[in-house]
Design goal:
Layout (H helix, E strand, L loop, with lengths): L3 E8 L13 E3 L18 E14 L6 H7 L7 E2 L4 H14 L6 E5 L6 E23 L16 E2 L2 H9 L10 H16 L7 E6 L1
Parallel strand pairs: 3-4
Antiparallel strand pairs: 1-6, 1-8, 2-6, 3-6, 5-6, 7-8
Helix pairs in contact: 3-4
């Protein structure tokens, strides 16, 4: 089976990141897919920073990609910037920020795309919720008994019994797997999921 399983824990500490998508936050508004109510995490619920993207601009680092990028974003509301030197680009962005009242906002550069970068301006809105951290990760390797977790509208499971059930499903052999590979997979799951489980904080998030 192809899936990703992550052991996530609620925490009181805000993650140290400038990435608005990397805060690992759940709010009362976006709390869905769990097999428990929001109050299950009551020990960690507080007023947290929830990022709200105000606007996104695009800047091109290579002039050869300018026409392609401009065409790609022609029907969007995003501004496309290019300057031949970093200093000129920085000044152009500062002028844009000043003109549009963006200077006081947080900024994050997403450098994932190959032909351009996305510069996101965002503000943090205080909401009722909790922060999270990742404790463990399991990729594939589950047998058909894992079908138990294919439940409508649920992809986050919090009970220790569910962690144990998932552990018992780790015996699927891919063509390249050896017995040692499967045993190592089990050891890692036990270390990062079962041994680190904390009721009221832990949940197992599935991505199929």
């Amino acid at each position: 089976m192809g899936l990703d399983i992550t052991h996530i824990k609620a925490t009181l500490e805000k993650p140290k990141t400038t990435n608005p998508y990397g805060l690992g936050e759940f709010t009362e508004e976006n709390f869905d897919g769990f097999d428990v109510p929001f109050s299950h995490f009551e020990k960690y619920i507080q007023k947290i920073d929830s990022p709200k993207i105000v606007t996104t601009v695009v800047f091109v680092t290579d002039e050869n990609n300018l026409d392609y990028t401009t065409e790609w974003f022609k029907n969007s509301k995003r501004e496309v910037f290019f300057e031949k030197t970093p200093d000129l680009l920085e000044q152009k962005l500062k002028n844009y920020e000043s003109k549009n009242g963006l200077s006081s906002l947080h900024k994050y550069i997403n450098e994932s795309p190959q032909k351009w970068h996305l510069l996101q301006y965002y503000e943090n809105i205080k909401k009722n919720g909790f922060y999270t951290i990742d404790e463990g990760y399991q990729r594939k390797g589950m047998n058909s008994a894992f079908n138990y977790f294919y439940q409508d509208n649920k992809d986050c499971f919090v009970l220790k019994e569910d962690f144990i059930r998932a552990y018992s499903c780790i015996d699927y052999y891919w063509d390249s797997d050896t017995e040692e590979d499967v045993n190592n997979r089990k050891k890692l799951f036990k270390k990062d999921f079962l041994d680190k489980f904390e009721f009221g904080a832990s949940f197992m998030a599935l991505s199929y």
